[in-house]
Specification:
The complex is a heterodimer of chains A (205) and B (245). Chain A is built from ten helices and no strands. Chain A is mainly alpha-helical and 205 residues long. The longest helix of chain A is centred in the last third of the chain and has 24 residues. Chain A is globular and about 50 Å long. By secondary structure, chain B is an alpha+beta fold. In chain B, 31% of the residues are buried. The model of chain B has no long low-confidence stretch (mean pLDDT 81). Classes of the chains: A mainly alpha (205), B alpha+beta (245). At the A-B interface, helix 1, helix 3, helix 4, helix 5 and helix 6 of A face helix 2, helix 4, helix 5, helix 6 and strand 5 of B.
């Protein structure tokens, strides 16, 4: 698994891109909504590298990743009118669109299209990415999540990887791993609970 | 199911991976404005963003940004004399390559542009299909029996927003654009996005996002300055009553 086997330097770069900027992005969001193409250049400078990293992580093909990065930012450009520039967080939205475009591509070549594409589309709705609490996107939270991830068992890591980077439902995971659906559901939910409990514990400490 | 029972599902929900039945449970909580589930969903989206940012760091080639900005019509920043020299070299090179090479380059650029256009169109059509397939979508026709254009259908959906399909839209003057508005009953119009019609006067425009259909009165379209307006400045060319759906 490549997931989470990153170096501290990579961690700092990626996290800073996502978690520190979102409070400063009101003006950038306003310019994007005003259809200023130069604002798109700025958005790309902030999130292009991370977007490419995530998409490549999913599709493992540079040419496809390049196309999907372009598609990601054009999609953001075409939907930014619904984005809440005062309370929204551009980073999580861009990353969600990037991940979903990559998963959509992966499903299309695997013959796994169908209703899933519409569900991904719905989860890119810019209105969802507003009203985050300050603490939800912080360096501390990122570190806590990293620590929590290291507590997961190999099976739990595998299912999280399959969900986030291969876009598999629990039924599809059960088929891939040749495990009963109930077992897979237990792995997924226990993994997410470990991540969540670690965050809650850190927040109340 | 209670909010506590749904707590383990928000991450998968936000990744679009829940089975239909479980997804429906969370949808039901969100549609009725459940604050606990809304907060849990925000937390899940934040967790997703952070987890995804753990991906191994890779730098995209510079051409990715160039292609993106070219597709939006952005010209590259000038480099003074160096830019002029580069331009001259490019001109000499272009002459040397000859007309055939220029034609091929032009065709490639057109093809790339077309691909991007197709990608954007596919994106919009995918959204439209989502609207049409959703059993909660409610259609309202407008313009029927009217002597003057335009005509079409407004579709509203409590979870997905508004889809406008219009034809016979009059051509716009230079510097003008169509702007859609959602107007609550007895309320002030809320901007719902800018759009152009095509050469035949047809347009498909989408406002994405949850919508309180119970308070919605009218979906309207006006002609506005190209940068859009915060409130309508002209008489609507479309006013579709959607109250009571």
């Amino acid at each position: 698994m490549i997931f989470l086997k990153f170096l501290p330097a990579g961690l700092a770069y990626a996290f800073l891109q996502v978690v520190l900027r979102f409070k400063e992005e009101t003006e950038l969001a306003r310019r994007l909504k005003a259809r200023e193409p130069e604002a798109m250049a700025e958005l790309y400078d902030r999130y292009g590298r991370l977007t490419y990293s995530i998409i490549y992580r999913v599709v493992r093909n540079t040419a496809v990743a390049e196309d999907l990065v372009q598609e990601t930012f054009l999609r953001v450009w075409n939907r930014v009118h619904s984005f809440d520039q005062q309370r929204g967080a551009l980073g999580p939205w861009v990353l969600a669109v990037a991940r979903n475009r990559a998963i959509d591509y992966l499903r299309s070549i695997d013959g796994r299209m169908s209703a899933g594409a519409l569900e991904l589309d719905r989860m890119e709705n810019p209105a969802l990415f507003s009203g985050f609490e300050d603490s939800a996107l912080s360096i501390d939270r990122a570190r806590q999540l990293k620590n929590a991830f290291e507590k997961l068992t190999p099976s739990q890591r595998t299912v999280i990887e399959l969900a986030y980077f291969e876009g598999m439902s629990q039924t599809e995971m059960a088929d891939r791993l040749k495990q009963p659906l109930g077992t897979v559901k237990t792995w997924v939910r226990s993994a997410l609970k470990i991540l969540r409990d670690e965050l809650i514990e850190a927040a109340t400490a | 199911m209670t909010c506590d029972e749904l707590r383990d599902m928000h991450e998968l929900y936000s990744l679009g991976l829940l089975e239909r039945e479980e997804k429906g449970e969370i949808d039901a909580h969100l549609v009725r404005g459940c604050d606990t589930c809304r907060k849990n969903l925000k937390d899940a989206l934040a967790v997703n963003a952070i987890l995804m940012s753990f991906s191994p760091d890779l730098a995209p080639p510079a051409r990715v940004k160039r292609r993106l900005l070219a597709s939006l019509g952005v010209k590259r920043a000038g480099w003074g004399w160096l830019g002029a020299l580069a331009a001259a070299c490019m001109l000499v090179l272009a002459l040397w390559l000859g007309a055939e090479e220029r034609r091929r380059a032009s065709e490639l650029a057109d093809a790339r542009h077309s691909l991007i256009e197709i990608s954007v169109q596919r994106d919009r059509l995918q959204q439209a299909i989502g609207f049409l397939n959703d059993p909660e979508t409610r259609p309202v026709s407008f313009g029927k029996g009217q002597p003057a254009p335009p005509r079409g259908t407004v579709l509203v959906n409590p979870r997905s927003g508004v889809l406008l399909i219009a034809s016979n839209l009059p051509p716009l003057a230079a510097g003008r654009i169509y702007e859609m508005w959602v107007i609550p009953k007895g309320g002030t119009p809320r901007p719902a996005g800018l759009f152009h019609s095509d050469a035949a006067g047809t347009a498909l425009h989408i406002l994405s996002g949850p919508l309180d259909i119970g308070t919605l009165g009218v979906v309207a379209v006006t002609v506005e300055p190209e940068s859009g307006s915060s409130a309508p400045t002209t008489t609507p060319v479309i006013a579709a009553p959607v109250a009571g759906l």
